[in-house]
């Protein structure tokens, strides 16, 4: 399998963490989807990463789709419960974490790509409200539990850990550690795992 992505994308990181936890062999191809010479649409018509190229040449895209598929490939470190209610709860956690990222990524791109006088303060505020609301909800759901789903380590933790890691990387001004000590404890615990240590985002 070949994973196409970047070292800064939190969605790509989620897939890389899953692959590491599942102990799956794959090659990694870095792709800048914003570069004029990008070829990403040859494998993903939406022009997004991550994209997983299978052994037969077929492709999977969207981190949630890829992660769910990968969990079926190997019995090692089962990340999605088979039980319907628990499985759905893990997917809700993932949607929540990805939703925080979706809003934060939009703000990052608005600030990066538009001149200050062209940026919409109202639109940025709307997106940041989603980020803060999502963080509050994650903290409330986590409570005093060691992991998102209680005792077991699941895809919910992977998604939340990648979201928090990207916020620390791109939005250091957001003091989620001080505001939500339980999220900080979870993130520190996750950061001790080899899968997280080996996938810390950086600009190549």
Describe the protein's topology.
Layout: E1 2-5, H1 10-21, E2 27-30, E3 51-53, E4 59-61, H2 63-73, H3 84-113, H4 121-142, H5 155-170, H6 176-179, H7 181-191, H8 194-197
Parallel strand pairs: 1-2
Antiparallel strand pairs: 1-3, 3-4
Helix pairs in contact: 1-2, 1-5, 3-4, 3-5, 5-7
In summary, what is this structure?
It is built from eight helices and four strands. The protein has 204 residues and is of the alpha+beta class.
Q: Main β-sheet, in a few words?
A: 4 strands, mixed
End-to-end distance: 23 Å
Task: Write the CATH fold name of the largest domain.
Answer: Glutathione S-transferase Yfyf (Class Pi), Chain A, domain 2
Number of strands: 4
CATH class wording of the largest domain: Mainly Alpha
List SSEs in N-to-C order: EHEEEHHHHHHH
Low-confidence stretches: none
Total domains? 2
Mean pLDDT: 97
Assign an overall shape: globular
Structural class: alpha+beta
Please give the CATH architecture of the largest domain.
Answer: Up-down Bundle
Share in helix:
40-55%
Strand content: 5-15%
Count helical runs: 8
Global Rg: 17 Å
Strand order of the largest sheet: 2-1-3-4
Organism: Massilia consociata
Pfam families: GST_C_2 (PF13410), GST_N_2 (PF13409)
InterPro entries: Glutathione-S-Trfase_C-like, Glutathione-S-Trfase_C_sf, Glutathione_S-Trfase, Glutathione_S-Trfase_N, Thioredoxin-like_sf
Protein name: Glutathione S-transferase C-terminal domain-containing protein
